[in-house]
Amino acid sequence: MRILERWLKQYGDFSIDPHELAERLTMLGLEFESVQRLDTRYNGFVVGEVLTKEKHPRADRLSVCTVGTGRETLQVVCGAPNVAPGQKVVVGLVGATVPRNQHDPSGAPFVLSRVAIRGVESSGMICSESELDMGKDSAGIMVLDRDAKPGETLASYFGLDDVAFDLEITPNRPDWLSHMGVAREIAVLTGTLPRLPRVKLKESAEPVGKHLSVTVEEGENCPRFAARMIRGVKIGPSPRWLQNALRNAGLRPRNNIVDITNYVMYECGQPLHAFDHALLRGGRIVVRGAKEGTPFTTLDGKEHTLPAGAVMVCDGEREVSIAGIMGGANSEISDATADIVIEAAYWKPSSIRKTAKLLGISTDASQRFERGADPGGVRYALDRTAGLVMELAGGVLLKGVIDVYPRKIRERTVPLRVARVNHVLGTKLKKPEIVRSLGLIGISESGVKGDTVKFRVPTFRVDVEREIDIIEEVARVYGYDRIESGSGATFSFRQPFPAVSREQTLQEAMAGRGYQEAITNSMQQPKKAAMGGATPVRILNPQNQDMAALRTSLVPGLLETAARNHNAGNLTLRLFEIGHVFRIDDGPAPKLVQNYLEEERLCLLLTGSSAPVHWSSPGRDVDLFDMKGDIEFLLAKFALDKSRFISYSTSKGLTDNTLGIEIQGSYAGYLGGISKEVRGLFGLERPVFVAEIGVEGFRRDIRKAYVPLPRYPKVKRDVAFTVDAGIPAASLEATIRESATELLQSVEVFDVYQGEQLPGGKKSVAFTLEFMSLERTLTDAETEAAVGRVVAGVEKAHGAALRSMR
Amino acid sequence: MHSEITSLREEAENAIRTVTDARGIDEFRVRFLARKGSIAALFDRLKTAAPEDRPALGKMLNELRSAVQQMLDEKSGAIQAPASGEAAPADLSLPGRRGFIGSKHPLTQTLDEIRAIFVSMGFGVADGPEIEDDYHNFEALNFPPDHPARDMQDTFFLGPRALLRTHTSPVQIRVMEEHQPPLRVIMPGKVYRNEAISARSYCMFHQVEGLCVDRGVTFAELKGTLIEFITRYYGAGLKFRFRPTFFPFTEPSADIYISCFICGGKGCRLCKQSGWLEILGCGMVDPNVFRSVGYDPEVYTGYAFGMGIDRIAMLRHGIDDIRLFFDNDIRFLNQFRQ
Ligand SMILES: [Zn+2]
Prior knowledge:
In chain A, a hairpin with a 3-residue loop joins strand 22 (319-322) and strand 23. Chain A is an alpha+beta fold. Chain A contains 19 helices and 42 strands. The longest helix of chain A is centred in the last third of the chain and has 19 residues, at 780-798. Helix content of chain A is 24%, strand content 28%. The longest helix of chain B has 26 residues, at 54-79. In chain B, the strands form two sheets. A seven-stranded mixed β-sheet of chain B has the order 1-4-5-9-8-7-6, sandwiched between helices. In chain B, strands 2-3 form a two-stranded antiparallel ribbon. Helices cover 39% and strands 19% of the residues of chain B. In chain B, strand 6 (240-247) and strand 7 form a beta hairpin. The interface between A and B is large, with 102 and 103 residues.
């Protein structure tokens, strides 16, 4: 919304510097995008009169003109087809900066210099609307009114001696979508309430009811519908002041009637619509619901199919306007129009919003109605419009107003407890201070009962309904910065939430192990999102197909990250990500929202070297055991001793050589090498290893009881077995644990050998065993017996042969 | 013991064949020759052997030791392993074995700092789902159906009532549904908005939400708490201001600005010439929100606040393109080692 300083001052003068004004209004809740003087961009542009026009001797499309600028006559080469002698045009003088270069894709401004165009000298430029950044028209030059005076500055001609404030309006304050609304806020600074211009109307004897009737069938969605009729108006361009005001506010002047309705809307916030009475069949207006599917052409020439529930303004036979949104082409004001009907109505906000959304239209009118216009301001806006029409377009105003307003929307009365103000704000305000503050924004005291003061709220303040709304107004006008800050008044030590999250502990652990944390987009290509093996959740309104589904696994995101890094030459990667994955699940698992299952996971990715380059060793690339080791590290770090690896395979062939991870007997995740096929999909040439594991499994209940330190030495024995090559080391280890007595403290594989020393199909696996007793020092005999049990057990269970022992 | 000496020699012969690198050499040495190696173990047991056998066994053991030492020396020469252990290399300027250096994502680091401050002020940490229903994301937060306030947050829809949360505020509702006051909690997480991707905005970003509910919580306390946070996080000496604004779920609502730390308030590109940077939104919890979770607004008052972690991280590190966070180029991530 663009507000102009000169326009604002019509409702109450003030002398505050524009930047200071913006600063002080900012502290009242208005948000300023920019504050700018309008004339500074147009230094060096003047009105010129085209005196002569001749064809350029060496270019068909160019003409050579002489242009009078009051003091001098310039020769200018012009490429526009519409330039003609006698026209008043905008001339950019040598040295001026043209705001938009229409031949440059970025439209960057450029400085005019004296040039020769195909051999003909040109001193200046005749400008188009687009070049002046005053409109979109770039096809021809901008032609000014006949009465424009050559030599007059462009700023003066267009009334640019003004300051424009560009505002961002929050949805709760539709009243700020007008100059009057902003002027009312300035009253907080000046102490004087603004006033709208007084309207005096001269009505003819002929009653409006003779030519027009209004029936409202949609009373619920149309609480108020008012209309006036003016006969014999003369349609034409608006006077310059009106055109300038609209243009400076960012609107495009059309004709006097339409311009007036826009002007009044920007003045007081009430959208208006004017119909050509001759096109309203039967002289009737009926407000009713649309029949779903009816085609309708709006006055911008666009065709729409009306949705169910749309409220329409109709004549005796057909729809003539989409209520509160946009008029129809079939009843539009044209040069031939003589009699007009002006509509000013109040529409139910949610109804307008619903229809505007369904149709995909947003207009100045719909934006105001859907946020809430002022039901009490309808009559003023209608009369103000009628007054301006008669002043600027002539005509005779018929007697009376049609105002269908069966249930009057009165000013609200809102009770306020003074104590409550201070209870919420932490202030010590007294009643007079509160009453004074609210008075500055037109909210007045209307009664007192004990500590409770009743306030009357004007109808344009649609956002003030409850006590808390009034409290906010008190805080706002009193000034947030004046409320003294306090602290800790209610400090409580009761705290059901942890101070350190599981994610944090995992992040620390992985960063400590040399992994870098990545954060990737949860929205993915549906194909990639499905790689996790579950049914991905689809986004109904995705930005594009690359982000049309939610990830079911963190792996594809990290693979994309790896590929991007590989392309950048970062070949060694140790990445982790902690994030949510999502899937559709109709099973019994508990869910917070419908059938969407959401789970937090940790994903690891390894590729490239196993260690930074070092002079002491040739180095090697990572393999599956690096990944397995990191998972073992995590499980051990989180003291998840009831965990194990199981054989597993990921769906859709995501990984090869996969191991499942089980914690406390339930599946928690997996690790493996990314299959060649999947690597191909991501353009990854080198081996990549991943692990993905649910964060839920990492519960950290490690407040264990202390175990006394052993008092007796432990005895170490190494045993090596020759077994069939296919027997997993883990099975041998399991057998060792099963066969041993409680004296066995630990088992570790320290060597695996397969080769010329052994018969084909055999391997040797060597274990270090540690034995210890909590009660005494073990004797040789006891140790030998314990080792003997282990050896016998492994020999029996796996057909193993003892290869060595020491 | 005689046979053990013989078999140990055989074992050593086998073992030396499999040694291919410096690490193997080292392991071999530890296994056989070190002070606690297998040969030393046999020497120890010499004491328990019959006195008459000791000289012969001792001789055998000495021979074994020199034979194994010779195997080791030959192998070391063959693979030119750099000396290790007690015999340190002459060139001490050579680099040590460093290992990889990991790091947390800059967004995580930013969140960690913010969280630590609030935790020290008595706040706990809670989280919630990223897929939300319309009720928790909007309705319970006092966004009426068909209200323009919903347009403030472009939403990705997943189903008729399901969506990707557009802010972390629904976690407030979930926390209040589960717990009774007093509450002091922050709620970090990812949020999603259907906004065009550019250097300044991404369709996914991160917020930290805060909530404090108790008897007698005031706007003054909200100011006090957040000023304490700002002073600790951004440093003392910055100017700040609270400006009225609108959020459906708080009233009164405020945006907090700090004076631009790039230009010191004179106006620059970062602060869009205003001299101020917006860093936080906050306000007193709207009574309608309390009603939707069954709290009595006459008994309890509270404040809520929210801030964008990505934006704060960008300001803090002078990052001019938000997409860098999600590209995860390790040359970028490497710059944020702690
Ligand atoms: Zn700045």
